[in-house]
Design goal:
Blueprint (H helix, E strand, L loop, with lengths): L13 H10 L2 H18 L28 H10 L9 E5 L5 H9 L4 E6 L2 H10 L6 E5 L12 E7 L8 H11 E13 L1 H14 L2 E7 L1 H10 L1 H11 L2 H11 L5 H7 L4 E8 L1
Parallel strand pairs: 1-2, 1-4, 2-3, 4-5
Antiparallel strand pairs: 5-7, 6-7
Helix pairs in contact: 2-5, 3-4, 6-7, 9-10
Length: 278
């Protein structure tokens, strides 16, 4: 699995968890990540905690409603990922929907006919279906990114935000996205990798049949966002997370001084954004 040593497990030191994942077959990597996200969902059910990405400092920030303003930097990563993609009246899929904050904002602001969020954490799906049941064009289902439970050519737009680094077999995920996307549809992907892994994934996109419309590195913008919200994030973790697992949450959240933050700062990890079409 690419670029582990970044987000980490509950109660297990990051480096040990990274080694376990690196030496594990893809099916076991998926099980380990599923266990981690289930723990995360169970241990932190506060309703304010609806976004799990690192954020993005945007030169063209979107207009937001007052209810969304506290989550601006996280929303901006979604907005950047989908920029120039028309979602109105489209059938849309988010793979790796987490706690649903991004999907909720997109369903409200971009007006797709329907938006389905799929995630392999049953705990996260349960929370999302409870929190967002008033949004008629939004639903969430439990599922596996490497074996999507949808017919061929089901969606006009598929997007994936800061999730694919958790997948055991990224090529299976990419091929599944290609399968369930309609001809002419858009696939928007944003995540982080080291240089070697990114070369491999870029080739996976091409081998699957996708045409790359645009790609760019956005590490600086993500790192600026991490710096901007670092103190608030630390305060939230201190308030809500038990001391025994606090360091795990800090690493998962990319706060200053943690391995993932330093990897971004030293450019050992870089953050990318791709828009593709089938």
């Amino acid at each position: 699995m690419e670029s582990i040593g970044v987000k980490m497990s509950m109660g297990i030191p990051a480096r040990i968890f990274a080694i376990i994942l690196k030496l594990s077959p893809s099916w076991l990597q998926n099980k380990l990540w599923q266990w981690w996200y289930q723990k995360l969902s169970k241990s932190h059910i506060k309703q304010d905690f609806r976004f799990m990405n690192y954020g993005y400092i945007d030169e063209k920030p979107p207009d937001l409603e007052s209810q969304d303003e506290p989550h601006r930097l996280f929303i901006q990563l979604y907005d950047m990922n989908l920029r120039n993609i028309l979602l109105k009246n489209k059938q849309v899929l988010e793979v790796g929907s987490g706690r649903g904050g991004g999907a909720s904002w997109i369903a409200r602001s971009m007006q797709p006919a329907s938006l389905i969020g799929v995630d392999f954490s049953s705990e996260a799906i349960s929370l999302c279906n409870n929190w967002y049941n008033g949004q008629k064009n939004l639903s969430f289902v439990e599922g596996n990114a490497e074996n999507l439970s949808f017919p061929d050519s089901s969606f006009d737009v598929i997007y994936n935000v800061e999730s694919s680094h958790c997948y055991g077999d990224v090529s299976k995920f990419i091929n599944e996205v290609f399968r369930v996307l309609r001809v002419g549809g858009s696939f928007c992907w944003t995540d982080f990798r080291d240089d070697k892994s990114m070369i491999s994934i870029n080739q996976m996109f091409l081998d699957s049949g996708f045409k790359i419309i645009s790609k760019r590195e956005i590490t600086t913008e993500v790192l600026d966002a991490l710096d901007s919200i670092n103190d608030a994030k630390m305060a939230t973790i201190e308030e809500l997370v038990p001391k025994t697992i606090r360091r795990s949450f800090e690493t998962f959240a990319g706060v200053q001084g943690t391995p993932v933050y330093e990897a971004f700062r030293n450019k050992k990890l870089k953050y990318y954004s791709y828009q593709m079409t089938k």
